[in-house]
Amino acid sequence: MSRDTTYRPEASRASRPLLWIATLLAIVTMAPVAWLVGLSIKDNRELMLGTESVFRVPYTLINYINILYSSQAFGWFFNSMVVAIGQTLGVLVLSSLAGYAFARLEFPFRRTIFVIVLFGLAVPEQAVIIARHQMFNWFGLHNTHIGLILPGLSSAFGVFLMTQFFKAIPRDIDEAALLDNASQLRIFWKIMLPLTLPAQATLGIFTFLHAWNDYWWPLISATRKEMFTITIGIASSQQNFAQSEGLGFLSAQAVFASLPVLIVYMIFQRHIVTAVSGGAVK
């Protein structure tokens, strides 16, 4: 049976409003990004006279060159990269193990513990910030990479996502592996884990983005300038920027800080589409 591929003009006309809405949303979303890039390639002296100069030539790359030679942005960038990668790897490992246990294993109080974990979705970070600050102060973890990474490892969303994904995998796969005398660890590592790559890619991207853009906890935990993450470092540079470093230089730092997020999304976007479409398990 062949599909009807006849062109219908009325269907095309009905989709035009949606196309216009999508185009408008794309313009609204990209306009601040284009403005930021424009500011980053303008001379600071011109921007001090008026930001409308962003619409006319000349343009320059001097702000990006200054990042290479006279900026602490690389140190902040390194701190953010360590924290983001550490949190992403930790969340993927812990969430995958917990999700597999909740979805495929039987143990006492499994449902109760799972509900307690889900309560973490309802508790805002601000509600526990004082207790967390005191605990990290007692253990001397402030102004350390470990202190910046640890709070992000408890991901209730990650456990929930991986649990639901493991539940969607047919039980026949487990039974076939058990017939071949495979252990639970081998089933998890060799069979189940590869099937969850789309979900792990999605969770990894969300975790990386959250860790990279996090401002609240690094603002509290990192009090020494050399331990600033990129978000705290750029925010600290905004004070009296017109008299010190300049708006163009600050914009160049923001563009520089956005590159890892763009690269990560471009690499793993195929896995996100697969996870959302439900095509991970055939």
TrEMBL record:
Q: Which UniProt keywords apply?
A: Cell inner membrane, Cell membrane, Membrane, Transmembrane, Transmembrane helix, Transport
Q: Which residues form the ABC transmembrane type-1 domain?
A: 77-268
Where is the protein localized? Cell inner membrane; Cell membrane
PROSITE patterns membership: ABC_TM1
Q: Which Pfam families match?
A: BPD_transp_1 (PF00528)
What residues form the membrane-spanning segments?
A: 20-41, 76-101, 113-133, 145-166, 187-209, 247-268
Q: How does it sit in the membrane?
A: Multi-pass membrane protein
The primary location reported for this protein is membrane
Q: Which Gene3D superfamilies match?
A: MetI-like (1.10.3720.10)
State the Gene Ontology BP annotations.
transmembrane transport
* Gene Ontology cellular-component terms listed: plasma membrane
Function statement: Part of the ABC transporter complex UgpBAEC involved in sn-glycerol-3-phosphate (G3P) import. Probably responsible for the translocation of the substrate across the membrane.
Q: Which family does it belong to?
A: Belongs to the binding-protein-dependent transport system permease family.
- What subunit structure does UniProt give? The complex is composed of two ATP-binding proteins (UgpC), two transmembrane proteins (UgpA and UgpE) and a solute-binding protein (UgpB).
- The name this protein carries in UniProt is sn-glycerol-3-phosphate transport system permease protein UgpE
| Phylogenetic placement of the source organism | Bacteria, Pseudomonadati, Pseudomonadota, Alphaproteobacteria, Hyphomicrobiales
